[in-house]
Amino acid sequence: MNLLTASNIGKVYSGAISFEALANIDLSVAQGEFVGIMGPSGSGKTTLLNMVSTIDRPTSGEIRIAGENPFQLSYDQLALFRRRELGFVFQAYNLLHKLTVKENIMMPLVLDAQPIADMNRRVEEIAEKLGITSILGKRTYEISGGQAQRTAIARALIHRPKVLLADEPTGNLDSRAAKGVMEILEKRNKEDGTTMLLVTHDPAAASHCDRVVFIKDGRLYNEIHCGDSRAAFYQKIIDLLSVMGGSENEFSPIRYS
Length: 257
Ligand SMILES: Nc1ncnc2c1ncn2[C@@H]1O[C@H](COP(=O)(O)OP(=O)(O)OP(=O)(O)O)[C@@H](O)[C@H]1O
Known about the structure:
Shape: globular
Largest sheet: 6 strands, mixed
Protein name: ATP-binding cassette domain-containing protein
Bound molecules: adenosine-5'-triphosphate
Organism: Paenibacillus anseongense
Strand content: 15-25%
Radius of gyration: 18 Å
Family: Belongs to the ABC transporter superfamily.
GO molecular function, one term: ATP binding
Low-confidence stretches: none
Mean pLDDT: 93
InterPro entries: AAA+_ATPase, ABC_transporter-like_ATP-bd, MacB-like_ATP-bd, P-loop_NTPase
Distance between the termini: 32 Å
Strand order of the largest sheet: 5-6-7-3-8-9
């Protein structure tokens, strides 16, 4: 069953000079699938993720998530839909620096006014799964980048969203921390069945996905599926990126496995 479908999506940024960032994008993501989005810089990856995550509106086409067209909801209903059904992870972590790790993770439940005992139990459960139990009392400036991203992932997953949307979650991390973060995302995808959509430049990160979709100049270019071997999938990703073009540095293939 498809959890998410984007049908014939187009996006034109209007301004002094209008720019067509996406055209004719059709993308279906099955329940429980982990899909990567790759492509050269400026190809429209973040624009597509922003449409799917309802942060921005497509100029044409339709998005459906769990049977719902989120853009037909009222402003307040859309805010609630986003908070309940979606989880977000960004390159810059976007943690609140005055709060502890625990308070950051708890934030979505606080906004939903959940009972305190339930919140504590849920934080302990997710912190355990993400290996950050020992840092729950720390402030965000006392933790490493990898720990900060795990905290952000815990915050994104604590309310058990239907879809986790991640934009370059390993972009600020060294290869070891990046590997840890990707292993965690893959584990949560496989064990909890959370559907995930990941924008990344990093072929090693993308190789944790079930499928990678490639975008070029705002249009779908190709897609490949992971077979039995992640190493072979990684190599297929590298090969496809080199055929697509873009600067070598841009994709910075770091082999961490
Ligand atoms: N708000 C905006 N107004 C006008 N043009 C925009 C806007 N946001 C993005 N664009 C343009 O749309 C295109 C796609 O941008 P987008 O950020 O989606 O690319 P990307 O593939 O995520 O790039 P990168 O890998 O560098 O982050 C780019 O040419 C960009 O300049």
